[in-house]
Amino acid sequence: MDRLKGKVAVITGGAGGIGRAAGALFMSEGASVLLVDRPGSGVESVAREIGGAAAAFAADVTDPSQVDAYMREAQNRFGGLDIALLNAGIVGAHTPLEEYPPDTFAQVMAVNVGAVWLGLRAAIGPLRRRGGGSVIITSSIQGLSAIPYTSAYTTSKHAVVGMMKGAALELTKDGIRVNCIVPGMTDTKMMDGIHEASGAPLEMAAAVRATIPMRRYARPEEIARLMLFLASEESSYCTGSTYAADGGILASWTSTLD
Length: 258
Prior knowledge:
This protein is α/β, with parallel strands linked by helices. The protein has nine helices and seven strands, in the order E-H-E-H-E-H-E-H-E-H-E-H-H-H-E-H.
């Protein structure tokens, strides 16, 4: 299919599970894709694996000059920008609030909030010059709820939901739509790291899956398909909203409070 034919997309966190899946899917739907991730992340090899009109750019997404550089690269290489998928993120520590390391809190906020703000800010001009486009921000179910001992991550994911809503109102006059994806637990290296940190990875994974109504993690491709909807003209009347792909977990958590 050609739902993104002729479109140019930038995807941050492009070497990760969801970013890689989105890059491959967007390209299969006709887009030219610039995958962005930190130096040493292997983003170049991911772009080679995807092939076709996929390219890589190594950058620190918390550095304003490097954010401007990856946006310029997309325009110089592919002729413009139509889609900005601001997907880079880190988990931080699993620690009681009073013991949470301030430097870790600052790092999580810099990547999960600051880098999104910088990417959004840098995307506006190029999107406006194309007559509009789509910005998709990856939040989390923790952007609509909370899990204990993850104060930095939960705070950051709530923050980008608020950022998205304000940006959507500001940018609708330019034809720029801004929305958030809210993934649940997804089968990625990020979740593998959470399992390993528990000291009992198999038991931890089983316990987490037991809290999900569908009793499994999402596949990265399932999250990418929702991103594709928001990137395409199929979502032309969608802006300022959050879209969950969580296996029913938010409904389950809500029901336990009723």
